[in-house]
From TrEMBL:
<dbReference type="GO" id="GO:0046872">
    <property type="term" value="F:metal ion binding"/>
</dbReference>
<keyword id="KW-0479">Metal-binding</keyword>
<feature type="modified residue" description="N6-carboxylysine">
    <location>
        <position position="153"/>
    </location>
</feature>
<dbReference type="GO" id="GO:0016812">
    <property type="term" value="F:hydrolase activity, acting on carbon-nitrogen (but not peptide) bonds, in cyclic amides"/>
</dbReference>
<dbReference type="InterPro" id="IPR011778">
    <property type="entry name" value="Hydantoinase/dihydroPyrase"/>
</dbReference>
<dbReference type="InterPro" id="IPR011059">
    <property type="entry name" value="Metal-dep_hydrolase_composite"/>
</dbReference>
<feature type="domain" description="Amidohydrolase-related">
    <location>
        <begin position="51"/>
        <end position="442"/>
    </location>
</feature>
<dbReference type="Pfam" id="PF01979">
    <property type="entry name" value="Amidohydro_1"/>
</dbReference>
<dbReference type="InterPro" id="IPR006680">
    <property type="entry name" value="Amidohydro-rel"/>
</dbReference>
<dbReference type="InterPro" id="IPR032466">
    <property type="entry name" value="Metal_Hydrolase"/>
</dbReference>
<keyword id="KW-0378">Hydrolase</keyword>
<dbReference type="InterPro" id="IPR050378">
    <property type="entry name" value="Metallo-dep_Hydrolases_sf"/>
</dbReference>
<dbReference type="GO" id="GO:0005829">
    <property type="term" value="C:cytosol"/>
</dbReference>
<protein>
    <submittedName>
        <fullName>Dihydropyrimidinase</fullName>
    </submittedName>
</protein>
<comment type="similarity">
    <text>Belongs to the metallo-dependent hydrolases superfamily. Hydantoinase/dihydropyrimidinase family.</text>
</comment>
Amino acid sequence: MSAFDLVIRNARAVTAADQFDTDIGISGGRIVALGRQLAAGSQEIDAAGRYVTPGGIDAHCHFDQPTGDGSVMADDFVSGTRSAACGGTTTVIPFACQQKGQSLRAAVEDYHRRAAGKALIDYAFHMIVTDPTPQVLEEELPALIAEGLSSFKIYMTYDALKLDDRQMLETLAVARREGAMAMIHAENADCISWLTSKLIAAGHTAPRFHASSRPMLVEREATHRAISLAELVDVPVLIVHVSGREAMEQIRWAQGNGLRVYAETCPQYLFLSAEDLGCDDDFHGAKCICSPPPRDKANQTLIWEGLENGVFQVFSSDHAPFRFDGPDGKRVHGENASFDKIANGIPGVETRLALLWSEGVLAGRIEPQTFVELTATNPAKIYGLYPRKGSIAIGADADLVIWQEGDHVVSNAALHHNVDYTPYEGMRLRAWLALTLSRGEVVWDGQTPLAGAGRGEFLACERPRPALRRRRQEELAL
Ligand code: URP
Ligand code: ZN
Ligand code: ZN
C-alpha cells in the first residue's frame, strides 16, 4: 500500500513567502507532506525543473449572470470553470447579482441552481447588492454573510445596479457590523451619462468613444468618494478593476493614511490600451470594451509598479464573457450599436495566470512569491478561504499548478471558454500551464480538460480577517 494517493516529485514550490525544492505528498485531496524523498504514492508526477504554484483563485469573474438587457453571458458554470481549470485556476468567485426589486436571497438561490452540478472546480459566491431595502440590510444580508457569502460588490455606476451615497453608507455599515468584505466598482455614473449624451449628440458613436465617456477623472472621483464613505463608516473596502494612475493615487493616499483600502487590478490594464478600442469605422474595438476602459502605455507601466510595490493585493480576470458574433453578445443592440449599447466586459479567465507568470515573473517584473500573493494567497485571505485555499501547505487543499516554460502563442482556438475571441490573440508568452490539480485530481494535463461537470464544490467563506474593523477610540454607534 502506498503512503500517498499522489506524490509530485522534485517541485520548485512557490508560496507567498518562499521558494523551496520539495516533493508534495497528497492524500484525500489535501497536501499531507512536504519534504525530500517522500515515500511512494499510488500515482507519481515528476515536476523536475518546473515551478509549482498554488492553484489560482479568480476572485472576480462573471459566469451565467443575468444581465437584464437581452445580452447573454457566453459562459455558464461548465464552460467557465473548464476554461478556468485549463488556465490554472482552481477556485472561482463569481457574483450572485440581485435585480432591483428582487430579494437578495432569491438571487443567491437562483445562482446556486446555476452552479450546482455544473462547476468543474470549487467555487464561492460574492453577492451584488443593488436594492438595499430594510429587509435586505437587516435580515437577508446578515444571514447570507453568516452562511458563507462573506463579500459583496457595490456599483457606483450602471442604472440597473448603482447605489447612491446614502445607500452605500447603509450597506457599508452592514459590512462593518457583520465583518464582510465590501468590493466597490468606482465610476461616477452622472459624469458618464453626461459625457455619453454629449458624445452621441456629436455623432461619436464608435466603440472607441467608450473610453472618452469614462476618462480617468470619472474613476478617480468615485474612488475618492468610495474611500471617504468607507472612512466615515470605518470599514475596510476593496476597489475592484483599477485601471490606472488617478485611481491608484487615491488608493495609495488612503493606504498611506492608515485606511484599510485594498485594490484589485486585471490583465486588461496591463496588456490593452484605449487604442485597442479601434478607429471610427471599426466595430472590432467592441471586443475590448470593459469598464473602466483600458488606458495607455504609461498607465500600464504604473499598474505593473502597483503590483510590485503593494498598492494592489489582488489580480483577477474580471472575465465577462460576451460573444462578438451573434445576436446576444457584443451586438445585442445591433450590428453597429453606439458604444453605450455594447455589452461591457472581456474574457480572460483562462489567460490571467499565464499572462502574469510570463510577462510578470519570467520577464523579471515581479517575484514568483508576489505572483502567488496576488493570484492565490491574498484572494484566499481577503475572501475568507484561507488556509484551505491559496497556499502550498500541509492541510491545504491540493490545488496546484505545474508550469511549462517555452514559447506559447495565445490563440482563441486553443482556449476552452465559449467566447469567440480573446483580446490577447497572437501574444507570445514564455510559458503555459503543464498541469492543474484540483483537490489532488488532474483537471488539466496540458492538452485536455479532464474534470467532469459537477465535481466542483461550493465553498462557504469565513468572515475575512482583512475585513475586520479596528476599534476606534470614539466608537460610532452604527
Ligand atoms: O466591463 C466590465 N468590467 N464588465 C464586468 C462587470 C463589472 O463591472 O465588473
Ligand atoms: Zn465592476
Ligand atoms: Zn466584473
